[in-house]
Amino acid sequence: GDYQKIKIRQGIETRDKPVKVQGWVHRLRSQKGLMFIVLRDGTGFLQCVLTGKNVQTFDALTLTLESTVEIKGTIKALPEGKSAPDNHELVADWWRCVGKAPGGEDAFTNKVSEGADPSILADSRHLVLRGETASAVLKVRAAVLSAFREEYASMNMLEVTPPCMVQTQVEGGSTLFAFDYYGQKAYLTQSSQLYLETCLPSLGDVFCVQESFRAEKSHTRRHLSEYTHLEAELGFLDFDELLAHLEQLICGTIDRVLANEASAALLQQLNPSFQKPTRPFRRMDYRDAIAWLKEHDVKTDEGKDHEVGDDIAEAAERKMTDELNVPIFLIKFPREIKAFYMKRCPGDERFTESVDVLMPGVGEIVGGSMRMSDSKELFDAYKHEGMDPSPYYWYTDQRKYGTCEHGGYGLGVERFLAWMTNRWTVRECSLYPRWTGRCTP
Ligand code: 4AD
Ligand code: MG
Description:
Blueprint: E1 4-5, E2 18-31, E3 34-40, E4 45-50, H1 58-61, E5 68-77, E6 88-99, H2 108-111, H3 118-123, H4 125-128, H5 132-154, E7 158-159, E8 165-166, E9 178-181, E10 184-188, H6 193-203, E11 206-213, E12 226-235, H7 239-259, H8 261-270, E13 282-285, H9 286-295, H10 314-324, E14 328-331, E15 344-345, E16 348-352, E17 354-359, E18 363-370, H11 375-385, H12 393-400, E19 406-412, H13 413-421
Parallel strand pairs: 1-2, 4-6, 7-11, 13-14
Antiparallel strand pairs: 2-3, 2-5, 3-4, 5-6, 8-10, 9-10, 11-12, 12-19, 14-17, 15-16, 17-18, 18-19
Helix pairs in contact: 5-7, 5-8, 5-13
The structure holds 4-amino-1,4-dioxobutan-2-aminium adenosine-5'-monophosphate (4AD) and magnesium ion.
């Protein structure tokens, strides 16, 4: 007869009809002349039951995990008390093996056994991705990216695609990846911020989802050499409006992910205790954070007491965030520890209208600020920083041809996901993570 080719996700709609499914053998069990295959095709998992002649062939007797198969049959609801994905199973009429995976020493389970050496698992990332946890994280990642885009659309913001190859720095020279560009020096982008700022006059408020590159000296569980950077820039707004926008972006995105049954279920599987943050987020002045760290005897990386002017390093930041256990807007950092473009606080030039969003378990997931909108101030900043203004002419021009108060931010997508899905490291939230010394597979 005619078997309709389906993806596993369509199983519920196609119950009791002849269907054909194709996928990978995720689990395998034989019992009293029956063979149970849990089939995986990326859209879901389907239990298939093979009987009679179908289990007596050479292929059936030697079938291995991760082999590809094609199965024809009918999906039947399971009676109460039996359990399988979606509470049904495919009763097979016919099947064939499409590509047999090795058994024995070379078997899949020997390649990616849990608890294997981390560097072996990293080399086998292409196989690790087949696991239930890794694929769930990547599915939530896709849902989160869609939700961000939907949230931006609802705010009338436009997506742009800035260049990856650039000749300017944004976040300091020490983390630049440099390369030869037809005989000129160029870099892989650290942040698309400066380009987004140039879009305001023509496109209005904009955002991008672009890879950023950092030759990080820090080997930590939240640093990658290449990460997905969600950045946005908004015009004609003040600092308070920027903070309110960030709250809306984060909460609105989470609402959208949770409103989707499939992604909500995956999130629940990965992080059963996930709770949507409540608004408004706690605002904490940088100076109050320093006071908090002192009071709680949290030392700097050099083992000293924190003083105003100090950078708040990862360990101290985590300690504070985990202790307070709510999202925090850490605001108004000193000028000396922040980037050149940040607007100073009106009335106190030593500090900037800047914000880091901190989340329990991860720490900083967003860095943002109001930008200098005055040319003269910006020239002073280039000078203060020892930067040659000439490669930045196009950035400076924004202040010349109709300036406006504006601000924006960058959100590390892998850090956001590590927080949401409760992963130990951002490496689990990237398809093929790159970090110090790791550029394979
Ligand atoms: O705080 P950062 O360096 O800020 C900027 O790049 C601004 N120019 C963004 C802007 O205003 N448009 O980076 C922003 C975020 C951080 O909060 C962090 O979440 C993430 O990017 N991030 C990294 N994620 C993974 N690995 C790294 N090495 C990261 N460096 C920054
Ligand atoms: Mg930062």
